[in-house]
Design brief:
This protein is an alpha+beta fold. The chain has one domain (67-305, 354-418): Cytochrome p450. It contains 15 helices and nine strands. A hairpin with a 5-residue loop joins strand 1 and strand 2. The chain is globular and about 55 Å long. The N and C termini lie far apart (49 Å). The model has no long low-confidence stretch (mean pLDDT 93). The protein binds protoporphyrin IX containing FE. Protoporphyrin IX containing FE is lined by residues 57, 66, 69, 101-102, 114, 124, 175, 178, 256-257, 260-261, 264-265, 268, 306-308, 311, 361-363, 367, 369-371, 374-375.
Length: 419
């Protein structure tokens, strides 16, 4: 006998609203669900089994498209029916931004774009010889972010540190500087990218929707300005133009990178830290003190607690995946954070040293995340520097505290304050 529909573990909540133990519990339950798909009230068809998620993310089979990956969850008709959203939409987003990265379906053009970001000489590629410099630069962003949220008192004993705010400030600096925005704009990157993230995964209405459209518009407007700036100067804008990409594609590439880097990185830091400090033995936390053991903790955080938990695709027609799972025509939500816990692929996913397949946190195939190495180093620097600064840090927010974080099908974070 099937389970009653109202017991589906992600029927009414998203990962973003759950403390991590509850998240662990519901993901485990999800893998016991008798069906392989679930029709969500958002209109998205949810999938979570490892092989299915990988096949759908890879999107090489005829019938699976990535063209809707960056579409707003609420759809363009709701935006155009929201009076406050229309002026910013017309001001900044008409004509519609070009498809450039995750939603580009022209494979040859996409390959050229992707190479500017993550090819052998790509802008976000970190060569072995560059790592030490990148770590130093990220360390400076860590110091600046801690100072910014504690008014310069962050290194005094006993001061409460809002890690959620600090990690957002940090990730905005890391992304804004790397993409090449003027420093004056870095702090605003968090708001603008929050708008893009929110539009992808939240059921927004009225003034929230209008505010998000305005902020998303700003993201494209500053990207356009950044592309004009300092011709000839070494930077991402020069690399995009040197690759001969049409200007509209270059603008969208910049905007998409700005949008992609902030809440993904900061959400992983927040949720990861919540898990590390909630453990009474703090064994994973203390492993951050050792350069040889820290990377495996970061890898585990990225497997279990990524700041981005799912991504969209579309079935162009009814189809059957290699596993036999059948999909209806329409939009799909590939829940990769859930797939990273599929017992068929990761027999003991909550154990640190457990074997398993490649986690799908950064996607799979031709659209795999070009910011993967930067994001991984950035998370490692933040958490190891925090450990050095405050090895005795304790969560101020008691474990299991109710959270009022918004329902979000794609992004996930945690409200974390430490002392
Ligand atoms: C923990 C941090 C991050 C996570 C979990 C993450 C996850 C992902 C995933 C799942 C995709 C695949 C999208 C698809 O298949 O269509 C993706 C693509 C992308 N990511 Fe990331 N990302 C992170 C950080 C970053 C950073 C720091 C940047 C930029 C600096 C970035 C830029 C991008 C871009 C531009 C794409 C689109 C690639 C393409 O389709 O060509 N990401 N990311």
């Amino acid at each position: 006998m099937g389970w009653p529909v109202n017991e589906f573990p992600f029927l009414a909540v998203t990962a973003n609203e759950l403390p991590f133990r509850e998240r662990d519990r519901r993901y485990a339950e999800l893998h016991e669900w008798p069906e392989a798909t679930f029709r969500h009230r958002s209109g998205l068809q949810l999938i979570w089994r490892y092989d299915d998620v990988r096949e759908v993310l890879e999107a090489v089979s005829d019938g699976i498209s990535n063209s809707n990956s960056l579409d707003p969850l609420v759809g363009f008709p709701r935006i155009m029916a929201t009076p406050g959203a229309i002026p910013p939409f017309l001001r900044h987003l008409v004509p519609l931004p070009a498809k450039a990265t995750a939603n580009l379906t022209d494979h040859d053009l996409h390959k050229r774009v992707w190479n500017t970001m993550a090819g052998p000489d790509g802008h976000f590629t970190i060569g072995a010889g560059e790592r030490a410099d990148v770590v130093r630069e990220l360390g400076r962003h860590f110091d600046a972010a801690i100072d910014a949220v504690t008014a310069g008192n962050g290194k005094r004993a006993g001061v409460a540190l809002d890690v959620t705010a600090a990690s957002i400030a940090y990730a905005a600096r890391v992304t804004g500087s790397r993409v090449g925005l003027p420093q004056a704009d870095w702090s605003k990157v968090a708001t603008w990218s929050g708008a893009q993230s929110g539009l992808l995964g939240r059921d927004m209405r009225s003034r929230h929707l209008a505010g998000a459209v305005e902020a998303l518009g700003q993201l494209f407007t500053v990207s356009s300005a950044a592309l004009r700036g300092s011709p000839g100067a070494d930077g991402f804008h020069t690399r995009l133009l040197d690759a001969g990409l049409p200007r509209r594609i270059a603008i969208s590439t910049m905007a998409n990178c700005l949008a992609a880097g902030v809440h993904t990185v900061s959400g992983s830091i927040q949720q990861g830290l919540d898990r590390l400090l909630s453990d009474p033995g703090r064994s994973w936390w203390s492993m951050l003190g050792e350069p040889t053991t820290a990377p495996s903790v970061i890898g585990k955080i990225l497997q279990l607690d990524p700041g981005l938990v799912a991504w969209k695709r579309r079935a162009q027609r009814p189809l059957t995946l290699k596993s036999g799972t059948t999909l209806h025509k329409g939009p799909i939500l590939a829940m990769f954070a859930a797939a990273n816990r599929d017992p068929r692929a990761f027999p003991n996913c909550l154990d640190l040293g457990a074997s398993g397949k490649l986690p799908l946190t950064f996607g799979f195939g031709r659209h795999v995340c070009p910011g993967k190495s930067l994001a991984t180093v950035a998370i490692e620097v933040f958490l190891t520097r925090l450990y050095e600064l405050a090895p005795e840090a304790r969560l101020v927010t008691p474990d299991g505290t109710e959270t009022s974080r918004p329902r979000d099908l794609l992004f996930s974070g945690a409200d974390v304050v430490v002392a």
